[in-house]
Amino acid sequence: MGQTIRFGVSLDSDLLEKFDALCEERCYQTRSEAIRDLIRGTLVQKEWEDLNKEMVGTLTLVYDHHHSDLAQKMTEIQHSSLDVIVTSLHIHLDHHNCMEVLILRGPGQEIKATAERLISTKGVKHGKLNLATTGQDLT
């Protein structure tokens, strides 16, 4: 971690008021912590632009497991993506619906391709890829 540097930020008073309310709502003790998190968030988004870089993320899928051969198709896709799927969690939401959460790690383009294949599988009701960082480039 590098040296801490102080710097000033000029903001419109209305914008600062909204930011302070957000800081309080999210339990930040200081504006500095909130600003650091905003900067880190932006850097992580920038990191995802390089699809060759090592990434991590979660993929959440909701589907009706009674839908024809959906479970078999999803299993086949997952088995063909063992290099990026670290683990998965399967939850029975009710008699018909299941939620599956997959932890993914690997080159960004492979994570994205795997997620798109699973989300677009006929019978998947909802799919969401949540991207994160390995933390290697953040302090």
CATH architecture of the largest domain: 2-Layer Sandwich
C-alpha end-to-end distance? 6 Å
SSE series: HHEHEEHE
Low-confidence spans: pLDDT under 50, at least 5 residues? none
CATH class of the largest domain: Alpha Beta
And the CATH topology of the largest domain? Alpha-Beta Plaits
Counted by DSSP, the helix tally is 4
Mean pLDDT: 92
SS class: alpha+beta
Main sheet attributes: strand count, strand direction, barrel closure: 4 strands, antiparallel
How many discrete domains?
2
Q: How much helix is in the residues?
A: 25-40%
Annotation, overall tally of beta strands: 4
Approximate shape: elongated
CATH superfamily of the largest domain, by name, is ACT-like. Chain A, domain 2
Calculate Rg over CA atoms.
Answer: 20 Å
Any chance you could write out the topology, listing elements then pairs?
Elements: H1 13-25, H2 31-47, E1 54-64, H3 70-79, E2 85-92, E3 97-107, H4 108-119, E4 124-132
Antiparallel strand pairs: 1-3, 1-4, 2-3
Give a short synopsis of this structure.
The chain is α+β, with helices and mostly antiparallel strands.
Notes on the structure:
Ni(2+) binds at residues 79, 90, 92, 98. One of its GO terms (molecular function) is nickel cation binding. Transcriptional regulator. Keywords: DNA-binding, Metal-binding, Nickel, Transcription, Transcription regulation. The protein has 139 residues and is α+β, with helices and mostly antiparallel strands. The protein folds into two domains: 13-47; 54-132, Alpha-Beta Plaits (2-Layer Sandwich), CATH 3.30.70.1150. The chain has four helices and four strands. The chain has helices spanning 13-25, 31-47, 70-79, 108-119, and strands at residues 54-64, 85-92, 97-107, 124-132. A four-stranded antiparallel beta sheet has the order 2-3-1-4, covered by helices on one side. Strand 2 and strand 3 (97-107) form a beta hairpin. The longest helix is centred in the N-terminal third of the chain and has 17 residues, at 31-47. The model has no long low-confidence stretch (mean pLDDT 92).
